[in-house]
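B., you asked whether I could sanity-check this one before it goes into the benchmark set. Here's the sequence:
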Amino acid sequence: MGNNYCVAVFGGAVAGSEAVEQMTSKGVHVVVFDQNKLPYGKIESGLPKWHVKLRDKQEQKIDQKLDQPLVHYIPNCRLGQDISFQQITGEWGFNAVLLATGAWMDRPLPVPGIEQFLGKGFYYQNPFVQWFNLCHDPSYDGPQFKIQDNAVVIGGGLASIDVAKILMIENFRNSVAKIGKQIDTITVERLGIKAAAEQLNVNLSELNMKGCTIYYRRRIIDMPLSPDPQSDDPEEIKKVHNVREKIVNLAREKFLFNIVDCHSPKELIEENDELKGLVFQKNKIENGKAVPLEGSLEFVYSPLIISSIGSIPEMIPGIKGSIEKFDLEDGESGKLAGYENVFALGNAITGKGNIKESQQHGRKVSESIIRDYLGVDRQEHESEYDFKNEITDQLKPVTQFIEQSEAIDDKVFSKILENVKQLQLKAGYNGNYQKWIQQHLPLRMENIKTPL
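And here's what the prediction gave me:
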C-alpha cells in the first residue's frame, strides 16, 4: 500500500496492538488513541501485581508494536469524551476505524438496591484490583478501598480467585503487622498463607482469620477455569471436571479462602441504612443451568461484598449497542452496523473481559499454565500464558477493505497529522514513545526495598 493510508485504532493493549502490527506491516499509518497514559489496558490495571514476569513480558510486546515510525500515539484521549465518534467517522478521513476499547466496566450485580452501597461495604472487581495494583505507590491519589476479613466474593472464574487471593494475602499481612511482623505481598503470594506464617514463626490460629468466601451460582466443576468439553463423551467431561476441582482445591489449600457453590445473590441485608450482607438463593443444576431451589435461602452476613461476575465493554456515545456489546453487522469481522469502515476488535465483540476470553476462540489453555497463573504450581509456565488475541483472521476482511479503498488525499492526510499533533500536545506527549512510557510507569512494588 502507499503511504497515504491511515487507520485509527482506539485502545493500544492486547487486541489494539495486534491490529497495529498487522496494519504497519503493510505500510499503513496508524493513529492509536488510548484513554490512559499507558496503552497496556488490563495487563496494567487488572493483572494482580504479583505477576511481574507476565506483566513485563506482555507490556514489552505492546511497546515493540507501538514504538514504530508509522504509529502515532495519542494518550489520555477517551472516545466519546475527549473526541466524539462522529468527529472520527465524519471529519478526520480515516480509511478505517478499529475499536479495541476492551471491557472496562463491571457487569452490574443483579441485586436490587445494591448500588446505593457502592464504596460503603460493596465494591466491584475492576476498580478494586486497580487500586490494589497501585496502592503501594505514595503518589497514588485514586479511590481508596478497605480490606476486610470475612468478605464475600461473588463470581466463579480466574478473576474471582484473584480477588480472593488479594483479600487473603492482605488480611494476612495486616494481621501479622499487628503483632510486629512484616512480609511483602509478592512473598506471601509465592509461599502461600501457611508457609508464610511458618516463615514468620506465627501461629495461624492465633490470628483468628475467618477468611473470605467465593459464592458461585453453579457447581465447582462448572467453574470456567479450563476449556469446556469438546464432546459429550463421559470420560472427557469427567476429565475436565476433575481438572477444575483440582485447580480449585490447590488454590484453596494454598490461600485458605472458602468456596460455596450453587448459590446466587438474591437480596441485600440492610440494617440502619448499612449493608450487612446478602441473601443467597440455593440452586440445583439442570441441563447445565442453575435452577432455584424454591424456599431454600441462606442469609450471609459480611462486612464486605465484592462482585466479580465479569466485565463488559463501556458503551460509547454515538455507537449503537446493548448493555454488553456493540451492534454488529458481521460478527466475524466485527463490522459495526451502519458503518462501512468501522470495526470492533477483541472484547468489544465478545462482550467479555476475562482472561479466558482474551484468548483465541477455542484456544486450549493447559492445566499447568492455569495452575501457575493462580500461583499453586510454580513451574515457570507463566511465560507461556500469552494474552495475545489471535485476531489475524478477523483482520483479514479489515485489511481487504482498506486495500480496496482509495488512498487518502494528501491534504486530508496532512490534516490528520495536524489533528494528531494537537491532541498529542494537549496530552503533553512530545512523540517520544519510550520516554513517555518511562516517565509514566507507576512505582513497581518489586522495586521497593521495605516490605509492603
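One thing to flag: The domain at 6-104+311-447 is CATH 3.40.50.720 (Rossmann fold). Otherwise nothing jumped out at me.
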